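Something for you to look into today, if you have time. Could you write out one complete protein record for me, on any chain you like? The space below this message is yours for that.
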Amino acid sequence: KNKTTHQAPPISITSTMITCAILVIALATLCTCARTSDALADTLTQQGVLGTRLGAHELQTLLNIPADHKIDARSFRPTIDAWLPELKARVSGLLGSFGSSSPDPSTAFDWIPSFLGYAKPGQSPFTWSTDCFSSNSLTAKFTDSGATLTLTSSGSSMKDGESNACPGEDVYMIATMEGLMFHQVKSTGTIPLTWNATLSAEEKIWISNNGFAVLKFNGTLLQTLSSLDATLALFLPAEVTRDVWEKVELYNVEFLRSKAFYPLEKRNVTDVIPDEADVNDGDFFGIIRMDGLDPMLAWGMGAHTGHTAIAMRFDNELYICESTTNSAYWPTNGIQKTPYARWMEQAKMASFNVVHLPLAKKYRDMLDLDAARKFFEEQLEGLPYGYHNMLFTWVDTVNANYPSTLVWQTHQVLVGLVEMVSPSTASLMWGQAFNKRLSTTNLTVLETYNFMDKHGIDFTTMFAEPEQDAWIYSDGRSLVCDVLVCEMWKAANLFGNYTQQIQCTEFTNWDTYTLDIFDTTTPRPQACIDADPTLPFCQVLGNYRMTLPGYNTRPFVPHMAERCPRGQPPNYDKPAGC
């Protein structure tokens, strides 16, 4: 929920891309010489990637992450941007050795594994079926040196010469909070797997309570790597260039068309920038940049924008206020205000697509602009981007906020794996927010999981607890882009009698632009009509026509946006009361 000068998926960019990197580099490292799927599997096995437990040290080595590295809200984005090109080069190099075709945007994020269940030590086998094998089981047993796992597959459904749903192999990830193992199954049989590790006390408690998580990838090793490559092609080179190259922009458009059914027609006129006199304090600006990040965020959270901003005058000069991060195409970090003309120039150079939604006169007249300006200057300006609660503003339900095959169990495991590789990242993105919800102090992610198990609190209940605007994190208030817009409206009394019953930190991009607060009666300028005849608002920048399903339709209700599903694309409709 943020512009591309900030974050992270369906899982955020953190869990998505770090987990992507764990998979890609683990699977791709040292195997660019492999020419067939069997050769790939053989090489990965020889290198200790398939069939071997990978812990923090092994993954930090593969990912080139120092064991003592530290990431905070100000260094997170530059660190990710510096790391992505190396990741992309490794994957593309590996796939090039197979003679693979160009990446297909419709397969991006198909690498996300499906959660199957848990195998608890000392209990009955966990069983499941697949398109390749009708009967599969995993048993687990603690040992002095970690654990032993036994994976059995039988009842092959592979038929020579006949078409069936089996791709020819099953590829699994078996994981705990401090380790993971990849395994490929191509034939029936029983395979002993050794979980070689000195289990920490906390991890052993978690495994005893939950088990070894079993996740299955949705294709072969090669198909999984191809999907990873298709995912990375969304982000690069756009994340590290000032503008978005035409072919990269089109690739992202095709991703949104295939995954989110977002049409995004090409525009003939790209610049319809309003005069400053035509922009009022409190007006909304919605943005999407075709650079992987914004499209991922829009698809993941269920919106047609990836970033939002608000207009506000200070000392009679018009500014655009926003929460974002510095990057290859944006010079300033954190919550900031930029003079209007300069912002438009920067937005154009960065290849932003931008819409302008003026507030209705009724709501403009309600605004206490002095209070909003004071709130911004004294409490918000200069704060870092709101990573601490980014995912918590978005996930309100058990599984109805996740895209694709992602479910809460997978999310829970991925958060633990991120902590294993980068504890400071996990603390930034999840740890502090977990502690707030549990009224605990300085517990790690794994410790909070065990605390919840001990006290009968399930992960989904904790995660979906509404974020509170008043919560203060280690570096201050935590506001993502649309939360900043909403908080400015709230400080200006736009919500009137509902002010104390609305938590802006529960809003997503969709929640802001669907509020019934915008001007739909004043005729649009002729230049807007000429550029975009079918739109009900003005699009001021961009090569592709933005649409906002649900625009200007939702009245205020108490506790809105707190318990809402993502909805299904392309409109992301939600129940009444959201």
About this structure: Residues 45 and 51 are 7 Å apart (CA to CA). The chain has 18 helices and 14 strands.
